[in-house]
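Subgroup meeting minutes
Present: P.N., E.W., G.H.
Scribe: E.W.

1. P.N. recapped why we're keeping a running log of single-chain structure predictions: easier to compare across weeks, and new members can see raw inputs and outputs side by side.
2. G.H. added today's entry (228 aa).
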Amino acid sequence: MADIEFFFDPLCPWAWITSRWVTEVAEQRTLSVEWRFISLAMINEVRLNATPEEAAELGIEPAPPGFQAVAAAGSSLLRIAAAIRQESGNEAVGEFYTACGNLLHKGGRSAAFWSADGPADPANVVSEIIAAANLSPEIAAAADQEEFDVVVRAESDLAFERTGKDVGTPIITFDTTRPNEATLFGPVINRIPRGEEALQLWDAMWIVARTPGLAEFKRSLRGAPNFN
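Output recorded in log:
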């Protein structure tokens, strides 16, 4: 059993920053991380498929312009990640997620996905990541194989079972011996804590995550994401 479970969508810049903090802590404390899936497309399924009129009836915000591209690319990358796990295991999923983040977020490509118009061709970005990760043609083909959506949906549902609905990414199980009590959405941070600062934040979150009855704390103000 891993010490930590980290649920991610490769297209989420905030999840990427938090994941680099978690890997920093894991290296310093010799903790193991299990990389699990949560899909922004599935989280926002109703918003993505609703017309403006239907969204108004349901009392929800329609999906913003360009989000279809985010959903499509994220789904493709999560299918590939599921195929990688099936063939090569958890460590290979972590390496793939690193390749995704280095190109999408550190490399600046994700900004186009989150712009009003979205990228010109999301499939091209997925192809770039496949090439950067040196994936076999067989694994790359998983981008279009909907059967892997079953795994992604099951893990997305599991994350929400642990946190409740109306949250986003990332979701972290801080203590896998108590998954239903020690799982939180976040922390959402705009830069990667390193060294002692990373450990201090981890220790604080460990206490918070394991506190019985705690439901939520939040503030909305944050700076632009810094991937360095």
